[in-house]
Amino acid sequence: MHMMEKLIIMALEAGFDAAGALDCSTIILRPEAREACENNRCGRYGKSWSCPPGCGSLDDCAALVRRYAKGLIVQTVGKLEDEFDGEGMMAAAHRHAQSFRRFSKELRMDYPGMLPLGTESCSNCDPCSYPDAPCLDPLGASSPMEAFGMMVSDICQANGMEYYRGKGTITFTGCFLLE
Ligand code: SF4
């Protein structure tokens, strides 16, 4: 079996609902995505090593991303009763975060230099050691894709993954840059 097929099966077994190959040459890093971080709607700007400015400048992130050619996109799809179904959204977000942590540990064994990029600011430690001390778990930490300037819709579209699965659904997307 081809390595990418194996990785996709592993991702589904780890709990994701969809997974597909990521061609890292399709990744475009956009300043607009970082501007959304600076608006700080999530409250994590300047609070974590995983988010701007702690995760480095857009140029720093680009230099890191350019080291990779192949990766994997992973998704969790939640079903919602209606557009106000906050519980359904939270449940899907929680399931996505759990699968992401589980799969990240598994992948790290075969790809020790991989770069995991998730959906949310890293929450491995409470509180994050930023900015007083170095990251407490650099191998377990992950930045959100937007913190690296990635527009999730662009990346999905360029790699044949659905970004939006229609009314009554919510899709969470993360990726792993592998080699
Ligand atoms: S692993 Fe801990 S210290 Fe490092 S970014 Fe995540 S929360 Fe912060």
Produce the secondary structure layout.
Elements: H1 3-13, E1 18-23, H2 31-38, H3 58-65, E2 70-79, H4 86-110, E3 115-118, E4 143-144, H5 152-158, E5 169-177
Iron/sulfur cluster (SF4) binds near residues 135 and 140.
Give the structural class. alpha+beta
Order of helices and strands: HEHHEHEEHE
How many separate domains make up the residues?
1
- The 3D shape can be described as globular
Enumerate the spans where pLDDT stays under 50 for 5 or more consecutive residues. Answer: none
Largest sheet geometry = 5 strands, mixed
The chain-level mean pLDDT equals: 96
Query: Helix count, per DSSP?
Result: 5
Query: What's the total count of β strands?
Result: 5
Bound molecules: iron/sulfur cluster
Distance between the termini: 19 Å
Side-by-side strand order of the widest sheet = 1-2-5-3-4
Query: Radius of gyration in whole Å, from Cα?
Result: 16 Å
Helical residue percent band: 25-40%
